[in-house]
Amino acid sequence: ALARVTGRSPAPPLPPPPPAFPIAVAAAATVALVVAALFIMVGRRRKENVLASVLASSWRVANVALLPVLLLTVAEPRASPLLLGVMAVASLGAASCLIGTASLRPVKSAPPSRALSAPSPTPDDCGGGMATPDELAVIYAVKHSLRQSPPPPNLPEDGKVVAVQLLRVVREHGTDARAVERVYRRALAWKRDNLPDKPELDALAESRWLCAAEMPHGEWAVGHWPIGFHCGYSKSGSPVKLERLGACAPPSDTKLLYPYYLALVDTLQRRLDRTSVTSGRLQQTYELFDLAGLGTHMVTFTTLSFTKDVMLAFATHYPSSFSKAVVINAPSFMASLYRILSTVLPASVKAKVSILGAEYEAELANDLTPETLYWVTTASHAQLCRAPFRDGAALAQPAGSSRAVR
């Protein structure tokens, strides 16, 4: 009637309101369910092991469980309830896979009657005394058992490297010698069956840091999956690895991605083990994840499947490998949610995990040197894939190390 009187066309109808089921609710529900599952699984153990088990497992589970929801949140804050439900189910499925691995087994001290018999150990059996006396006894017993029975075909020849690898397992799983040997043998078997053949890279990793472009299909990765293999050191002496997840181009298949990423993770671990032996200190990485540019293009079944497989393999077969994980350029809701959750987390967990938004440089400057910050703030994707080699030169080893990086 108003149109007939005024001669004007009626105004177009207002757009429908956004869905009443925000993605933040899905993320919060996922966090709550994962934490509840952790306590249910862990609560079956002896009471004194509950807190230690939760602390050891919560970050790995959160990585896998929240990734699909967070990917969707960054790109589409008004996603439909159905899509959010699919993401939550996928998240919980990935978390349940991780919860069921050996990484959540009880941490027990092996009684003397169950310990593997071996000659008396010496501190030199663990690369210069990194282990406590109890850890050293377990490491030496497992090494002796590995040599006595038919050894795994890919067991490292250097006994000190074996000792460092076993120390990582002991720190993650406790001092039950038989359990440590089982976990270590499974890891060697997985590496034998799944890693690409890379004898040249393994030989190079014994003497110097490599770059991502040197990995299998490394040149492909320069334009599709930029990672800084070694971007210098944190001020505490930990090697820094940077992954620009927001700049990754999801592949249509994983024929190139799996060999590239698995070779990179294993070669990095070999380098960490070797530098642990030469420095007399257990080396762990400072992990940086840059979410700038993350969008719905990353939310594909191929990407989610790859993420689940890699997270599960890393948590199970490369224990005690990182000292701190920092997410930068995170959406505001993600940082706010973490701040709320962190109020109930122990200080030891909060010290290992940080989630920062776009204003991250001041906080990173507390942990990283200016030389290392260059790779985070200035280097292009192509330059990052060739870190630590900048303008034809490699970064220097941190002060106090017994060997210079070539």
Average pLDDT, all residues: 74
> What order do the helices and strands follow?
HHHHEHHEHHHEEHEHEHHEHHH
Shape: globular
Name the quaternary structure. single chain
Gyration radius (Cα, Å) is 24 Å
Report the portion of residues in β strands.
5-15%
Q: What is the structural class?
A: alpha/beta
Number of strands: 7
Please give the share of residues in helix: 40-55%
SSE topology sketch:
Layout: H1 2-6, H2 23-42, H3 50-75, H4 81-99, E1 108-109, H5 133-148, H6 159-173, E2 174-175, H7 177-194, H8 199-205, H9 218-224, E3 227-228, E4 240-244, H10 257-279, E5 285-290, H11 301-317, E6 322-328, H12 332-342, H13 347-350, E7 353-355, H14 361-367, H15 370-377, H16 381-384
Parallel strand pairs: 1-2, 4-5, 5-6, 6-7
Antiparallel strand pairs: 3-4
Helix pairs in contact: 2-3, 2-4, 3-4, 3-11, 5-6, 5-7, 6-7, 6-10
Task: Outline the structure in words.
By secondary structure, this protein is α/β, with parallel strands linked by helices. Helices cover 51% and strands 7% of the residues. It has 16 helices and seven strands. Strands 3-4-5-6-7 form a five-stranded mixed sheet. Strands 1-2 form a two-stranded parallel ribbon. Helix 11 (301-317) links the parallel strand 5 (285-290) and strand 6 (322-328). The protein is globular and about 55 Å long. The N and C termini lie far apart (83 Å).
